[in-house]
Amino acid sequence: GQPGEVLLEVSGLTKRFGGLVAVSDMSFQLRRGEILGLIGPNGAGKSTCFNLITSVLVPSEGEVRFKGQTITGKPPYAVHKLGLARTFQHPHLFPEMTVLENAALGTYTRTTAGILTAMLGFARGEEQASLVEAYRALERVGLAHLAHQKADGLTVGQLRLLEIARALASNPEVLLLDEPAAGLRAGEKRQFAALIRKLVNEGVTVLLVDHDMELVMGLVDRLVVMHYGEKLAEGTPKEMQNNKKVIEAYLGE
Ligand code: ADP
Ligand code: MG
Fold first, then answer.
1. Model confidence pLDDT, tens digit, residues 5-34
2. How confident is residue 252, by pLDDT bands cut at 50, 70 and 90?
3. Per-residue pLDDT tens for 105-142?
4. Which pick of 100, 155, 182, 205 has the fewest CB atoms within 10 Å?
5. Overall pTM surpassing 0.90 (yes/no)
6. Distance of CA 127 to the CA centre of its chain
7. Residues 74-111: pLDDT tens digits?
8. Cα(161) to centroid of ligand 2, in Å?
9. CA dist 153 to 63, 150, 162, Å?
């Protein structure tokens, strides 16, 4: 694909939970090769947006298009298979499994039906292929030397990297990162920023949610700012830092 082409398009996306409108008429585009930040105060609707984009949740209204096709209504594994992978705000890792096995869980949609199949064992050829891809993903994030350790021995920073490796194991075109730098120390945050830049150079397109404004502002090309489920503003980090509505939303938190 061409750099700059629209890869992901969110239009009029709305999600209601009973009387609460968690996401309200959100529209934005993610272009190939960019790092787009999605920011907003706690409860603004960022994680719900991720869940709608990855089809974990069905929208009340609106649509998500990926590479020109509607993904709304497709099951999450089908969306993953098309090249859209995500990390979770609260990583779902298996402490008793090795780092490599945890990373290999990210490849399950490429092979068979689901996470149960992944845990109970792949067909033999698939298992090999899956472990090779998982190892490659660990190399990309710098965790390959820990491949055969149990995940419960990892530091917070290493767990965050493993969560990214698991998402990378399916070789996605788009990576959705939900607060990937939460709990990291300053030095780890700098390494994390360098990793994201490296992945983008390798052709990955990134949608990033994080609360560390210094990290986000230094990393993203553009920002979409959410407030109470709605899109408040959109633009470059510099434009957003000088936007009156954005400043008010953050000061009023
Ligand atoms: P953010 O990630 O920006 O902090 P969320 O998307 O997690 O925000 O939440 C947006 C709003 O939707 C919050 O008010 C939250 O309590 C509510 N919410 C999120 N998920 C659910 C759910 N499954 N059921 C009911 N309310 C939810
Ligand atoms: Mg969230």
1. 999 999 999 999 999 999 999 999 999 999
2. low
3. 888 654 444 555 555 555 556 677 789 999 999 999 99
4. 155
5. yes
6. 25
7. 999 999 999 999 998 888 889 999 999 999 988 865 44
8. 18
9. 41, 6, 12
* DSSP code, position 105: G
Binding site membership of 42 for ligand 1 (Cβ less than 6 Å):
yes
* Ligand 1 binding pocket includes 22 (Cβ within 6 Å): yes
How far apart are alpha carbons 79 and 56 in whole angstroms?
10
Ligand 1 mutation target, pool 10, 17, 89, 210, most atoms within 8 A of CB: 17
Tell me the two tokens of residue 50.
């991720």
Nearest to 179 by CA among 10, 1, 49, 9: 49
Ligand 1 in contact with 23 (CB < 6 A)? Answer: no
| Helix intervals (H) in 86-155 | 99-104, 108-111, 115-120, 124-141
CA separation (Å) from 116 to 60, 77, 78, 194?
Answer: 29, 13, 16, 34
Q: How far is the CA of 40 from the centre of ligand 2 (A)?
A: 9
What domains can be seen in the chain, in order of their start residue?
1-83+172-253 (3.40.50.300), 89-168 (no CATH)
Q: Distance, CA 223 to ligand 1 centroid (Å)?
A: 20
